[in-house]
Design goal:
The complex is a heterodimer of chains A (262) and B (262). Chain A has 262 residues and is of the alpha/beta class. Chain A contains 7 helices and 10 strands. In chain A, the strands form 2 sheets. Chain A has an 8-stranded mixed sheet, sandwiched between helices. Chain A has a two-stranded antiparallel ribbon with strand order 7-8. In chain A, helix 2 crosses helix 7 and helix 5 crosses helix 6. The longest helix of chain A has 19 residues. The radius of gyration of chain A is 18 Å and the shape is globular. The N and C termini of chain A lie far apart (45 Å). Chain B is α/β, with parallel strands linked by helices and 262 residues long. Helix content of chain B is 42%, strand content 18%. Chain B has an 8-stranded mixed sheet with strand order 1-2-4-3-5-6-7-8, with helices on both faces. Classes of the chains: A alpha/beta (262), B alpha/beta (262). The interface between A and B is large, with 46 and 44 residues.
Amino acid sequence: MTVARTFEPSFLDSSAGRIFVAYHPPRGVARGAVVICPPMFHEQVRGYRLFALAADALASSGLGVLRFDYPGTGDSDGDEEAFTLDRAEAAARAALDRLEQLSGSSPMAVLGIRAGAYIATRLAAQRPQVRLWLWQPTDSGAQYLESLAAIDREERTSELRFGGAARAAVRAEAGVMVGYPVSGACVDALRAEPDPREAVRSVDLFIDRAVHAATPNVCGTIEIPESVAHWPLQVDMLDVPVKPWRELCAVLASQWERAPRG
Amino acid sequence: MDEILELDGGLYGVLSMPTSAAPKKTAVVLLNAGLVHRVGPFRMYTRIARELGAQGYPVLRFDQPGIGDALTLSDCSPATLVAGAFDRVRQRTGCETFIVGGLCSAADLGWIVACSDARVSGLYMLDGLARKGVWNLLARASRLARKSPAHWLRALSNNVRTTARTGAELVDADVREWPESGADRTQLATLLDREVRVFAGYTGGTSYFLHARQFAGTFGSLANSERVHFVHWPDADHTFYLERTRRRLIDESCRWVCSRFP
């Protein structure tokens, strides 16, 4: 049986090494293009299918979408210690350039998911004509690291994960973040990251459970229902709430014409 | 070096090609661990694939329909899709024989494929098939004996509530794709007669495998076959959350492949 795939996976050379990319060409009349900066650590794996589905939904509404994995994550080259914010930014820039080639002169947006907001805001600062969308962005890097440490503590003391005799022996591992090896340089760089909402002049679209409508630099907002908001807290891959997720993505796609930039 | 490999039914995989001067004649196909996409829990599949690639083994990782990048479902059976993946790997690499499997549901599907496809020369099972039996009861009793009476009461109460809600306590065989009890030994005997090598690794993170002797309890004298490599890691959780347990898994897996499929 032949089933057509709606996107094209490939590898792309960047100054930070070869990265895995998946391009979803726009279906119907092309309206614009979006590059997705994925979340980090366990959220990258937990959110992978969710944002593959999101990309597909955006593409079906006429938006070309490019997904990619940061160096040292997912299918991109490099081991986990190769992951740094600077390399992630270099990869994101290469992805944006590639998407620009693929989509011609279409208006573009960069969507930063969770800690991917740190990378997305860097890109937006360099390319003022590119719209900035933030999806459940993390707070400052220091707060984000604290939240990861709390999740790590919870996992290491989880009877569900380490039931029985093993539990008592589970200690924190140096150089590991929620199960992922990470370099000290990366941790230091994360700690220095400001709150992404405060790092930019304006956010074109803010997608979160409790939207900060009163935030002066936010142009548009989408409120996420509780049923699809909890995924960042899940270290293990649990259910994928496809129906409400698709509904949410349809709302996201409908926002393209609002507050266009450039 | 990784590359994209097109598969049947609109699927694709990431193929880690041999980077050593002496490519091997056996390829490895890693199947989805539950709902986790092809990188595996904490990227363990990517790491195994690249380390085996460096030893000369092509390794394919791909998403089954409904998981990761396989956005749509398929009418084909999972075993048929895996057989198709073998065909594509053979065309690309020339390998005629395969090691197949992975963690949890991947071990279950690997077993099914091994039983139905004569090209399988290696079965790689992590937290795969095992029956509880008397050793499991003894291990549970031993654990309970170390707990407080309050814990016994809670456990009993939870058990009663679950049974009342579901009508009967769910057992692992209800949620896993395992052969009928009794058929497992026959099927393993057939595989071993075919000279299939079996890696059977068990963690301390499942509810059903609590004692190393359950393995022999499940498979009888077949468990002692020189073609079977059994490992029990009670200090590891089901998805190898700790880097030290993951590193040990990767090393042990690569050693097994290199020694049994030179």
